[in-house]
Specification:
- The complex is a heterodimer of chains A (72) and B (597).
- Helices cover 38% and strands 32% of the residues of chain A.
- Chain A has 72 residues and is α+β, with helices and mostly antiparallel strands.
- Chain A has one domain: Alpha-Beta Plaits (2-Layer Sandwich).
- In chain A, strands 2-3-1-4 form a four-stranded antiparallel beta sheet.
- Chain A is globular.
- With 597 residues, chain B is α+β, with helices and mostly antiparallel strands.
- Among the domains of chain B are: 91 residues, Calcium-transporting ATPase, cytoplasmic transduction domain A; 146 residues, Rossmann fold, CATH 3.40.50.1000; 100 residues, 3-Layer(aba) Sandwich (Calcium-transporting ATPase, cytoplasmic domain N).
- Helices cover 52% and strands 18% of the residues of chain B.
- Chain B contains 21 helices and 22 strands.
- In chain B, the strands form four sheets. A seven-stranded mixed beta sheet of chain B has the order 10-22-21-20-11-18-19, sandwiched between helices. A six-stranded antiparallel beta sheet of chain B has the order 2-1-3-9-4-7, with no helix packed on it.
- In chain B, helix 11 packs across helix 20.
- Classes of the chains: A alpha+beta (72), B alpha+beta (597).
- The interface between A and B is medium-sized, with 21 and 26 residues.
Chain lengths: 72, 597
């Protein structure tokens, strides 16, 4: 299942690609895209695991930009 | 400006004022350096902190780290004003980039401002305002003039003109009345209509399209991956070069400070920001421009494919032709009159075309439709058959032709009627324009027989055609064409050619509004059935790519140029900061042109 979240806010394009690489490494994530241009995060994963994966994605994002959060 | 942008702006202003103040103070040496630290920290604390955090996490080649290193280095060798200035300029650039990106994001979303906000649903005898998401299938909804249709449905009461331009790019309003299907996202123009919802919001056209556009930024093309890879290599290379510049030449020439200063300038130029931002932003703009014209592109990779398309393979019905049948030839008026008299009892598209052409009718009795063959009826005392060759054979009439509708009365052959599909008025023009835009071949694949196919082939001026193909044959043919290694676009109506759409490098479904299956199977969707959208979208794609290329070449050329000048001592940190921030600003401004394609 694909799910899109809004990000508030990704500050730079390089950060976005770092976040993307980090989120792709989370267990259970089939694919992930962080778009600086649209300020969106797209995750493809199992429906039952969305909550856990989004929590972990938030941690990854926080490491790169502490002020950026996933809007749920 | 967002809250965060405002904070940054105030910091930059405060730091600038302090910086000027300190510059004019009659102080020397360490005192002055200490005072310069104040504006430096005000404007750059987040960069410094970001650098520290990144080092702790083992990521060193990031822009924060590079800026921190360059400015701290400048302080260390006594170039205080440069250090503060570089940091300030860097922050101004960041702020600008942030605002520009936000602006273009907003203007693209307003292009796609098609989401309905409310729906007036009939509940217990009254129309109540609810969110479109709360509408259930079967609900009766009131759409007042000026409002968007919230979900797909059928008109049950009232008639009005509706503006479909946001959905289809078609500027002529469509007149609808009871019984007609309307799609969500269109705007009702002049009088209230009531519709019965046939789909929930999430399944409605407008929601599907918004989802598609939303996801489009997620399909990255060749250029975007190139930039990501380039960025990964570029920064470490420049940092390495900086190290060499700082420590190798002084061995031969001395003057360590001069060379270290040059090396620090290298670091300032080492951020690939201009590219990393402008490339995806350009594609986003191009996709936005296309969607304003009713062309939905599912990702920048497909925009790239459109731009370098070599071969266009197209279906016939609904793409090159209108899909509406009409009488093109008939033996005589009597034939037409006999045929129409029976055909008016049928709903078959061929029958409708014949009835439309006829002006007079006989009274007929005992009319029967013989499925797959034609019509039978009694006119006066004569037994009349109207239909294909197979029907004539059952009626005991010999006929040695095919591909027409035959008429027989009282056991005698009367005449024939030819019915065919019309070639779109702009089909030939579009094919010619495709050639001038660099398409080498336009090939038609059709399930129709030779005769019908040939007439379309001639009238549209195509290069090749293959007829009498079953859906599976179409896929095979397409694969054969693709073996040449050229970029192949397939254009179809999306109704029965989903496998072909999927197989092509880039599959385009046209006239797809309201058809989920077509939207699903294709890479690019033309909302209306105007074939000239193909040339339009190729044009937009080419311009977008050329803006992307301009940005890539310009950014890299300036950066490399400044690196060389710096190494030779012709440029200093001030120029370096321009090469970084200025180039980024120019590149972003250039991308804004994609919004106006």
């Amino acid at each position: 299942m694909k799910k899109v979240f809004k990000l508030d806010e990704v500050d730079c394009a390089v950060c976005a690609s770092n976040m993307e690489n980090g989120i792709k490494k989370i267990a259970g994530v089939e694919s992930a895209v962080v778009s600086y241009v649209t300020q969106k995060l797209l995750i493809e994963c199992d429906e039952n695991e969305v909550d856990r994966i989004v929590d972990e994605a938030q941690k990854v994002i926080k490491k790169i930009d502490p002020r950026c959060r996933i809007v749920r | 400006m967002s809250r965060r942008q405002k904070q940054n702006l105030y910091r930059i202003i405060a730091a600038t004022l302090l910086f000027i103040g300190v510059a004019f103070l009659p102080l020397e040496g360490l005192w002055k350096a200490a005072l310069y630290l104040v504006p430096y920290f005000i404007v750059g604390f987040d960069v410094l902190w970001g650098a520290v955090r990144n080092i702790a996490q083992g990521r060193i080649f990031d822009e924060n780290f590079l800026m921190a290193l360059a400015t701290v280095g400048a302080f260390a060798i006594g170039e205080y004003p440069e250090a503060v200035f570089v940091m300030m300029f860097f922050q101004i650039g960041e702020l600008f980039q942030n605002i520009a990106v936000g602006k273009s994001r907003k203007s693209i979303s307003s292009l796609m401002d098609i989401a309905p906000e409310v729906a007036f649903v009939l509940r217990e005898g009254e129309f109540t305002e609810v969110f479109p998401q709360e509408v259930a299938v079967g609900d009766i909804i009131l759409v007042k003039p000026g409002e968007k249709i919230p979900v797909d449905g059928i008109v049950v009461e009232g008639e009005s003109d509706i503006d479909t331009s946001a959905m289809t790019g078609e500027s002529v309003p469509r007149f609808v009345s009871a019984g007609q299907l309307v799609i969500s996202g269109c705007v009702n123009m002049n009088s209230p209509i009531q519709i019965r919802a046939t789909k929930e919001y999430d399944e409605s056209t407008v929601a599907k399209i918004l989802e598609l556009v939303e996801h489009s930024a997620m399909n990255k093309g060749k250029y975007e991956s190139f930039i990501t890879r380039f960025a990964r290599v570029y920064t470490p290379c420049v940092v390495l070069l900086a190290l060499l510049v700082a420590f190798v030449p002084p061995i031969f020439f001395g003057e360590l400070t001069t060379w270290v200063m040059r090396a620090l300038s290298f670091l300032v130029v080492s951020c690939p920001c201009a590219l990393v931002i402008s490339v995806p932003l350009s594609f986003f703009g191009g996709i936005g421009s296309a969607s304003r014209r009713g062309v939905l592109v599912k990702g920048s990779n497909y925009l790239e494919l459109l731009a370098k398309c070599d071969v266009v393979v197209t279906d016939k019905t609904g793409t090159l032709t209108t899909g509406k049948l009409s009488v093109t030839d008939y033996t005589d008026e009597e034939t037409l009159k006999y045929a129409a008299s029976l055909e008016r009892y049928s709903n078959h598209p061929v029958a409708k075309a014949i009835v439309e052409k006829a002006t007079e009718f006989f009274e007929a009795q005992n009319v029967k439709e013989i499925a797959g063959k034609g019509m039978y009826g009694v006119i006066g005392t004569k037994e009349v058959f109207v239909g294909n060759k197979a029907l004539m054979e059952t009626a005991g009439i010999s006929c040695n032709e095919e591909g027409a509708i035959f008429v027989a009365a009282d056991g005698k052959y009367i005449g024939k009627i030819k019915v065919s599909d019309q070639v779109k008025a702009n089909a030939k023009d579009t094919v010619e324009k495709l050639r001038t835009s660099g398409v080498k071949k336009v090939i038609m694949l059709t399930g129709d027989g030779k005769e019908g196919a040939e007439s379309v082939f001639d009238r549209a001026g195509l290069d090749e055609m293959y007829h009498s193909l079953l859906p599976a044959d179409k896929v095979e043919k397409l694969e054969e064409i693709m073996q040449s290694g050229e970029n192949v676009i397939y254009l179809g109506d999306g109704i029965n050619d989903a496998p072909v759409l999927k197989r092509a490098h880039c599959g385009i479904a046209m006239g797809a509004v309201g058809s989920d299956a077509a939207i699903e199977a294709s890479d690019v969707v033309f909302m209306n059935d105007d074939i000239s959208q193909l040339t339009e979208s190729i044009k937009i794609a080419k311009k977008t790519i050329s803006i992307v290329k301009q940005n890539i070449i310009f950014s890299i050329a300036v950066k490399v140029g400044v690196l060389v000048l710096t190494a030779l001592g012709f440029a200093d940190m001030w120029q370096a900061v321009f090469a970084d921030v200025g180039v980024m600003v120019i590149a972003v401004l250039n991308t804004l042109r994609t919004l106006k394609l």
